[in-house]
Write a structure and sequence with these properties.
The complex is a heterodimer of chains A (182) and B (242). Chain A has 182 residues and is an alpha/beta fold. Helix content of chain A is 29%, strand content 25%. Chain A has a single domain, classed as P-loop containing nucleotide triphosphate hydrolases (Rossmann fold, 3-Layer(aba) Sandwich). Chain A is built from five helices and nine strands. The mean pLDDT of chain B is 84. Classes of the chains: A alpha/beta (182), B mainly alpha (242).
């Protein structure tokens, strides 16, 4: 569960105010124009940014940002294994690797992967662990049509609260979702 | 912790880092060879051995200080400037642990470089005609370790506060000012009030008139300053890692 009451983020020249909201389990599409504060809001919920107001988060959170940043000289398999060791859990890695067509690419260096492939690695890293809340910032960027469809189907069946930012609401046609406009 | 260190290792060591580190090491070796007064005659190098040895260590330690500051700047920039690389870590372990693992990684990598360069320095010294085991300064190691830790923590503080790698240049510049103000051979009389004050904040290691390499400033004060800056960084990161 996520509850926002009077949350605002103050910058030097402006203040972004977010409307009060309570989110329960399910898929939420966070929509808004450029600069509306979607990424900022996800960072606030993830506990990465200071803010004013009350943001209550019940359950463990996982954030995948829009920017894909991976260590260039690390192998794909090694990267995911190291992350698993960090949290001490073994999750749904194999399933996600196969879902995104990454099976057999464990020995490839990150620097040799295309943007779309690196996005898939980032999403695998975020979704492979069981969390109550997933915050995905523009996860469709860089993905091909088939991968987008596979990701949407996967998220639809995930038993968690998912907040996903997007500018393309139509990609979720026919999917049970709720909209949250900023 | 080892998994976090592994992530930091792959974050720092890219092809560019290997080239930079390689260039630093090669430059150090070439300059250390130059500091042995190779262009002078063998007889002169034996006759003036004591002063040449002192000169060699003075210039060698100066070179090491510059090398460490450059390497620390590079490490701090690599480890702290791209926050997007921190997110997978911050979503799995606390911000406190992420910061401490970065500090540990910095200290381990700089200390490793220190022991390597110190070894090279002593090896080159042992090949000179004025090599004398009694001239090797053993206590300077402790001061170097404090020097590295002190600047590492201040650099982390600067980059976390100003969120820009150019902030590190300020420290490099101020270190140079304190270096310029340092007399050739330090005597207590030779240090002015201004130099004392500058060295109290910007730690330096210098050659004293009696031939010892000592830290200017005060060990206790610098340990306290290091601890305060580290605590401030931890406090900031616990509140908001971004």
């Amino acid at each position: 569960m996520i509850e926002l009451i009077g949350v605002e983020k103050r910058y030097r020249n402006e203040t972004v105010t977010f409307t009060d909201k309570r989110l329960e389990k399910g898929l939420w599409l966070l929509l808004g124009r450029n600069g509306a504060g979607k990424t900022t809001l996800l960072r606030i919920i993830a506990g990465l940014l200071p803010y004013a107001g009350t943001c209550t988060v019940r359950g463990s959170v996982m954030l995948a940002e829009e920017k894909v940043a991976l260590p260039p000289l690390m192998r794909l398999g090694d990267y995911l294994k190291t992350l698993e060791r960090l949290s001490g859990t073994t999750g749904r890695k194999r399933h996600l690797l196969s879902l995104f067509g990454l099976t057999g690419k464990e020995m490839v260096l990150m620097k040799d992967l295309s943007l779309g492939m690196r996005r898939k690695v980032q999403l695998t890293a975020a979704l492979m662990e069981e969390r109550a809340i997933y915050l995905l910032d523009e996860p469709m960027n860089g993905l091909d049509h088939a991968s987008r469809a596979a990701l949407v189907a996967y998220l639809e069946n995930l038993d968690a609260l998912i907040v996903l930012t997007t500018h393309h609401e139509t990609q979720f046609t026919g999917v049970k979702k709720r909209l949250w406009r900023l | 912790m080892t998994a976090a260190l592994r992530m930091h290792f792959f974050r720092v060591f890219t092809i560019r880092s290997f080239l930079f580190l390689g260039a630093l090491v090669v430059l150090n070796v070439l300059l250390l060879i130059h500091f042995t007064q190779l262009n002078d005659t063998y007889v002169n190098r034996v006759v003036n051995g004591a002063s040449y040895a002192r000169q060699y260590f003075k210039e060698g330690f100066w070179l090491m200080k510059i090398t460490f500051l450059l390497w620390l700047m590079f490490l701090t920039n690599q480890l702290f400037s791209d926050k997007a690389l921190d997110i997978p870590l911050l979503m799995r372990v606390s911000a406190w642990k992420v910061l401490m693992s970065k500090v540990l990684f910095m200290i381990v990598s700089v200390f490793s470089l220190y022991f390597f360069l110190q070894g090279v320095m002593l090896l080159i010294f042992s090949l000179t005609p004025f090599a004398d085991a009694y001239l090797i300064n053993r206590t300077v190691m402790f001061y170097f370790l404090l020097f590295i830790s002190y600047y590492a923590v201040i650099m982390i503080f600067l980059i976390r506060t100003f969120a820009h790698s150019y902030a590190l240049m300020v420290l490099f510049f101020t270190f140079f000012v304190s270096e310029i103000l340092l007399p050739y051979e330090i005597t207590d009389k030779g240090l002015t009030g201004g130099t004392h004050l500058l060295n109290l904040i910007f730690l330096n290691i210098g050659l004293y008139a009696d031939g010892r390499f000592l830290m200017t400033g005060h060990v206790g004060v610098h340990l306290v300053i290091t601890a305060i800056f580290l605590w401030l960084c931890l406090l900031r990161d616990e509140k908001a890692p971004f």
